[in-house]
Amino acid sequence: MPRVAVFASCTEDEISVDGERVAAPGGPGTYCCLTARRLRADVDLHTRMGPGGARALLEAEGVRILGEPAAEAVRFALDVRGGERALRLLRGGEPIGYDGMGGADGAIVTPVCGEIAAGTLEAIKADSAFTLVDPQGFLRRAGEGGAIALTGEAPGLGGISAIKADTDELAALAGGGGARALAGAGVGHVLVTSGRDIMMLSGGREYRLSLPVKAVADTTGVGDIFSAAFCATMLRERDALWAFCFACGAAHAALDTREAGPKKVPARRAVETNAAYFYNTVEFSGA
Biggest alpha carbon distance in the chain? Predict the structure, then answer.
C-alpha cells in the first residue's frame, strides 16, 4: 500500500450553490486525503489545522495529521452558479513547514493561498520520489474583500513529477507556451483541466478525455480529488495513462454525486468503474 504525504491546508467553507448555502469542511487537505484513503493509500497530512470539522472527519478515515495546530481555521466563501465558482478568502492560513517525508512514497503539494513557501516546495521535491503540485496556492493572492487573483509567484518547475492546472493557471505559468512549455521546464506529467475537458501531456504524447457529466452542482474540491487519484494510482501502478483514467474517473464520480462539500468524495468502486470505461475511450496523439 503506497503512503502519500499531503502538504496542504484544510478549510472551513461557506458554499452557496445557486443561492442555497452550505457550511462544510474543505480545502485540498480534506479532499486529497479522503480521496487517497478511499483508493487504499496510507496518508500523512502535513498542515496547520485550526479548530473545525476537518480533523474529526479525517481521523475517522485513518489520516495521520502532522504539524502544529493553528489558532483559527482557514475560511473561504464560495459562490457556485451553473458550475462556475467565485471565491473569497475570509481568513488566511499559517505557514506550513517541512520536517521530512516520514517514509512516504510521494507527495502532493497544494496550498490554497500562499501558505507554502517556494523554499519548502524545493525541500519536498529534493526528498520525494514523486511530487505532484497544484500551483493554485502559489499563484493566488487575496485582494480587497478577499477576492482571489492569480498574481503570486509561480513555483519552480524543475523536479516536479506532475502538475495539475486549469487553463488560467496554465497561462500564468507558461504564457503562450502551454503544456509543452511546462514539460520543457522539467515537469514529467502535465495535467490540464478546462471544465469537463481534461488533457495530459506525458512522454511527448497528449491524452484527452471529456467527462460525460450532464449536470454539474458544486465543483468545490473536484480538482483536489482528481490530483489525489492521479498521485495515489501512480504510486501504486507506475502507469501514467492508468493514473490519468483513475483521476478522470474520480472527478466524474465526484460530480455525479451532485453533493456539496466532502460528501462528493467518491467510493473506490465508482472510481474503478469509470476508470475502466475511460481507459477504452481516451483519445491520444503525438509520439
Answer: 51
Are the C-beta atoms of 248 and 281 separated by less than 8 Å?
A: no
Pull the grid cell for residue 225: 480529488
Just give the CATH number of 3-286: 3.40.1190.20
Q: Is the pLDDT of residue 189 over 90?
A: yes
Write 112-116 long-range contacts (CB < 8 A, 24+). Answer: 112/8, 112/9, 112/11, 112/27, 112/28, 112/74, 112/76, 112/136, 112/137, 112/140, 113/89, 113/137, 113/140, 113/141, 113/142, 113/148, 114/138, 114/140, 114/141, 114/152, 115/9, 115/48, 115/74, 116/7
Average pLDDT (138-166) is 93
Least confident of 43-57, 78-92, 198-212, 258-272: 78-92
| pLDDT tens-digit series, residues 114-128 | 999 999 999 999 999
Nearest Cα residue to 206 out of 122, 118, 282, 102: 282
CA distance readout (Å), 169 to 35, 88, 101, 117, 278: 23, 17, 27, 18, 25
Amino acid at 280: N
Report the sign of the C-alpha dihedral through residues 235, 237, 240, 246, in that order.
negative
Mean pLDDT of the chain: 93
Q: What is the CA radius of gyration of the chain?
A: 17
Nearest to 252 by CA among 280, 217, 218, 226: 226
| Amino acid (one-letter) located at 166 | D
- Rounded Cα–Cα distance for residues 274 and 251 (Å): 9
SS3 22: strand
Contact 140, 167 (CB under 8 A): no
Cα 230 from Cα 249, distance rounded (Å): 10
Q: Is the pLDDT of residue 214 over 70?
A: no
Of 213, 263, 254, nearest in space to 13 by CA: 263
